[in-house]
Automatic annotation (TrEMBL):
NADP(+) binds at residues 274-279. Is involved in NO detoxification in an aerobic process, termed nitric oxide dioxygenase (NOD) reaction that utilizes O(2) and NAD(P)H to convert NO to nitrate, which protects the bacterium from various noxious nitrogen compounds. Therefore, plays a central role in the inducible response to nitrosative stress. This is Flavohemoprotein. Residues 1-138 form the Globin domain. The gene is hmpA. GO terms for molecular function: nitric oxide dioxygenase NAD(P)H activity. InterPro entries: Cbr1-like_FAD-bd_dom, FAD-bd_FR_type, Flavoprot_Pyr_Nucl_cyt_Rdtase, FNR_nucleotide-bd, Globin, Globin-like_sf, Globin/Proto, Hmp. Its EC number is 1.14.12.17. Gene3D superfamilies: Globins, Nucleotide-binding domain of ferredoxin-NADP reductase (FNR) module, Translation factors. The lineage of its organism: Bacteria, Bacillati, Bacillota, Bacilli, Bacillales. It catalyses: 2 nitric oxide + NADPH + 2 O2 = 2 nitrate + NADP(+) + H(+); 2 nitric oxide + NADH + 2 O2 = 2 nitrate + NAD(+) + H(+).
């Protein structure tokens, strides 16, 4: 238990962390990887280069300083991060290493402002916070070990199918012939690859895009292109171009707390942008299997019909459910899209469109897609009177603050 003095000192540093948190965490990661390059086999290099991991850690450290005397407030965020850690195979022996370099970063970046009392207080606080993570993650590892497997396991690609011009699905079976594990709709797996020419293993997390209870696990991967291909496209392009039926990959057991509440009966809205459709489709099909009479509105936004994935699969599922309906919003529909009448609305999924689509304000909402898309959709749902506790959303990668994507 932390002393009142330690709590007071840590809470007093919160304003400094708010101002210089990203500077501290950037220094931390640089020093950590220089001393322990083997940890690059765990971390997502793209998130490092884009600064997302540094920002996410800075936000976490700031929150820890603010609520150091009320750590139970942070438990939902801890569990979300712990799911990602378990899926990436982060272990308890990593925490002392992280603590050493985090304290070093605070001391080196803040200089004389980081007094011995502050460093000592943060050392004590880090030990308590780390133990919270270790305990939560231990439970998750034990659960994975009992229900599936504990770390990485070899799976074989048994089917590869193009879903759109940019999204391809990979169907996976365990190489040892054992049945695939059960999972909750909305969860993800981590896939680990050794790519020729890359010094370190590369890890990426992909949502499972089919309902549970099948003979295979399915992930659906968007090919990343453009200026940032070196940062975030190595794995997706390798999967698209070089991984084929019969090849093996390593994956961890399903993880994540962005999951469908199968016990709820309230009207359900599943809203996706781009490749964010993957967990939404898993949820839709799961409802179709288990609650076929539930009221469901499936809203899919995409740039055009060429990149829109799972058109037929969504339509078949919706048509099999008497109280389900779907709407497609294309930002830039092609002439072919217009001729084939492939969409319901043109442009962005803005407030006016949501106002037409959302009929039940007390429904349950799930939102997934690029951060700007989610920021806009969530803000507009709240403007329409939807309570924040009824809105669930999922990030691809480290969690960031959606407020930067919302209007002031």
């Amino acid at each position: 238990m932390l002393s009142n003095k330690t709590i007071e000192i840590v809470k007093s540093t919160a304003p400094i962390l708010a101002e210089r948190g990203v500077e501290i965490t950037s220094y931390f990661y640089k020093s950590l990887f220089e001393a322990h390059p083997e940890l690059l086999n765990i971390f997502n290099h793209a998130n490092q280069k884009q600064g997302r991991q540094q920002t996410a850690l800075a936000n976490t450290v700031y929150a820890a300083a603010t609520y150091i005397d009320q750590l139970e407030v942070l438990l939902p965020a801890v569990k979300q991060i712990a799911h990602k850690h378990r899926s990436l195979n982060v272990k308890k022996e990593h925490y002392p290493i992280v603590g050493e370099f985090l304290l070093k970063a605070i001391k080196d970046v803040l200089g004389d402002a980081a007094t011995p009392d502050i460093i000592e207080a943060w050392g004590e606080a880090y030990a308590v916070i780390a133990q919270v993570f270790i305990d939560v993650e231990e439970e998750m590892y034990n659960k994975a070990k009992n229900e599936a497997w504990e770390e990485f396991k070899a799976f074989k690609i048994v089917k590869k199918e193009q879903e759109s011009s940019v999204i391809t699905s990979f169907y996976l079976e365990a190489s040892d012939g054992k049945p695939v594990p059960n999972f909750q709709a909305g969860q993800y797996i981590t896939i680990r690859l050794s790519i020729p020419g890359e010094e370190y293993l590369l890890n990426r997390q992909y949502s499972l895009s089919d309902s549970p209870g099948k003979q295979t696990l399915r992930i659906s991967v968007k090919r990343e292109t453009g200026e940032n291909i070196d940062q975030n496209g190595k794995v997706s392009n390798y999967l698209h171009d070089s991984v084929n039926v019969g090849d093996e990959v390593e994956i961890t057991a399903p993880a994540g707390d962005f999951v469908l509440d199968g016990s709820a009966n309230s009207p359900l809205y599943l809203i996706s942008g781009g490749v964010g459709i993957t967990p939404m489709l898993s949820m839709l099909k799961t409802v179709g299997d288990n609650q076929p009479n539930r009221m469901v509105t499936f809203i899919q936004a995409a740039n055009d019909g060429k990149v829109q994935a799972f058109e037929h699969e969504v339509s078949e599922t919706v048509h099999s459910m008497p109280n389900a309906k779907k709407f497609v919003i294309l930002q830039h529909p092609t002439s072919s899209d217009r001729e084939e009448n492939k969409f319901d609305f043109e442009g962005y999924l803005d407030l006016q469109k949501l106002e037409q689509l959302v009929k039940e304000k007390d429904a349950t909402f799930y939102v997934c897609g690029p951060a700007p898309f989610m920021g806009s959709v969530i803000e507009n749902l709240q403007r329409l009177g939807v309570k924040s506790e009824n809105i669930n959303y999922e990030f691809f990668g480290p969690a960031i603050d959606l407020k930067q994507y919302q209007e002031a």
